[in-house]
TrEMBL record:
InterPro entries: PSP1-like, PSP1_C
Name of this protein: Stage 0 sporulation protein
Stretches assigned to the PSP1 C-terminal domain: 58-143
GO CC annotations, alphabetized: cytoplasm
A Pfam match: PSP1
PANTHER family: PROTEIN PSP1
Length: 264
């Protein structure tokens, strides 16, 4: 078993794991690690032990020093300047893209521009200009609408901070079937998030609904009751009830307990 530390970076709820080596890092401490982009400053959010793997994780380089923290603050100021310059260039070239965020790696070895666009964008001249101005490696990253919402943040119709920007580490597949089986009104305005896609929270309770629904008969099926043949009109897992339509057109509502006692 080898010890690892989970590190989270600003603006990204996903946790990445690194080898602390001999550093006795504690949760809440800041450290410097090397990522695929370059050196980054992160915060230790958890400590775990895992079996040894063939491809060991990247090591933690050091605890964050006062110099690292000062450099991080300076980078944030320079990012704001870079954002304005890039936005002016985008407008000058009339590029069909929306600049979302600019990020310097801790060592300023790379300057990343995150943007949204409906189609592919030819930004070659833009990159040349940015490289000439900032004299570092420039990277352009196009984001989908879900990643855009995560990056910008905000609040959902529930009044809470967006799940994608607060704690979700991955985007699970979400289908309209999840909304149907939770008896939600299939109104796009009510089941879509700020990104315009189906809300991520539709997937949270879906497994529970699936387990609960397995206890009930399927909607539309027919059952024999003491009152005669009946059709299942609705299953309500919240009320723990079933609404039936009898052959004479009458509708009755029974509980799951009554269904299991008399109709099975």
């Amino acid at each position: 078993m080898i010890p690892l530390v989970g590190v989270r970076f600003e603006g990204n709820p996903k946790v990445y794991y690194f080898d602390p080596r001999s550093l006795p890092l504690e949760v809440g401490e800041q450290c410097v690690v090397e990522t695929i982009l370059g050196l980054e400053l992160g915060v230790v959010v958890r400590k775990i032990t895992v079996p040894e793997v063939a491809e060991p994780p990247r090591p933690v380089l050091r605890r964050a020093t006062e110099t690292d923290l000062l450099q991080w603050e300076i980078n944030r100021e320079k990012e704001r300047d870079a954002f304005e310059i890039a936005r002016e260039l985008i407008a000058r070239y009339n590029l069909p893209m929306k600049l979302l965020q600019v990020h310097y790696t801790l060592d300023r070895g790379r300057l990343v521009f995150y943007f949204g666009a409906e189609d592919r964008v030819d930004f070659r001249q833009l990159v040349k200009d940015l490289a000439a101005i900032f004299r570092t490696r420039i990277e352009m990253r196009q984001l989908g609408v879900r990643d855009e919402a995560r990056l910008l943040g905000g609040y959902g119709m529930c009044g809470r901070e967006l799940c994608c920007s607060s704690f979700l580490s991955n985007f699970d597949p979400i289908s309209i079937r999840m909304a149907k089986e939770q008896n939600l009104v299939l109104n796009s305005a009510k089941i879509s998030g700020v990104c315009g896609r189906l809300m991520c929270c539709l997937a949270f309770e879906y497994p529970l609904y699936r387990r609960l629904l397995l206890r009930f008969p399927k909607k539309g099926s027919k059952v024999i009751t003491p009152m005669g043949l009946a059709k299942i009109l609705e299953v309500n897992v919240f009320k723990d009830s079933i609404r039936l339509e009898l052959e004479d057109g009458r509708e009755v509502e029974i509980t799951e307990e009554e269904y299991n006692r008399y109709f099975l």
